[in-house]
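user: can you give me the structure for this one chain? tokens are fine.
assistant: on it. calling the predictor now.
[tool input]
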Amino acid sequence: MQHYLIVWNFPTVEGSWDACTPFAEYINAGGPGDCFDGFELKYRVCEPIGGTGMAIAVASNIGKVWAHLAPWIKGFGIEFEVTPVVSDAEFAAMWPGVQAAASTD
């Protein structure tokens, strides 16, 4: 499973405002799309005044992330930036191999 950093921004204040009620309903319903086969949203925070936020998810592939974001893109025109990232443990585990590959000796 790959970790992904998901950052979002509403293009307009109106769009952000329009999404507030559906987002609150989604959260109050337990975030039904936040966990499905091959995808789990681990953490989400938002800054509602500016219409921005970010989340950390783990997914088997980028298509699972896209599927999770699709209703919000289609319904509200939210712009997302998705970046593959690694956890501290993943970094520590891969560093020796990266360091060895970079060695010029």
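assistant: here you go. The radius of gyration is 17 Å. The chain has one domain: 2-102.
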